[in-house]
Hints:
The protein is mainly alpha-helical. It has 4 helices and no strands.
Amino acid sequence: MSTVINLRIDNKTKDQANKVCKELGISLSSSIKIFLNQMIKQQGLPFTVSSYKPTKSLVESMKQADKIAKDPNWKTYDDVDKMIKEFGSNSNKI
């Protein structure tokens, strides 16, 4: 026996989910069935739910990395071995 579940969700979320499902070759309905079956199998949500908030230090580090990545004057390396060789005995400053 089957039952119908009505779900209210905004159009953008539904469209994005449909796009992912299409890429996977499944319907949105099938993806919801998979989710529910995994929930039953795992006796909980089939993914970790958290409220991760990056530390101030991490945010600052990410900003600095972004700034460096956009700076055309910053020396870059395509080969880690070449970079380490160039730093030589100063490799502890990497």
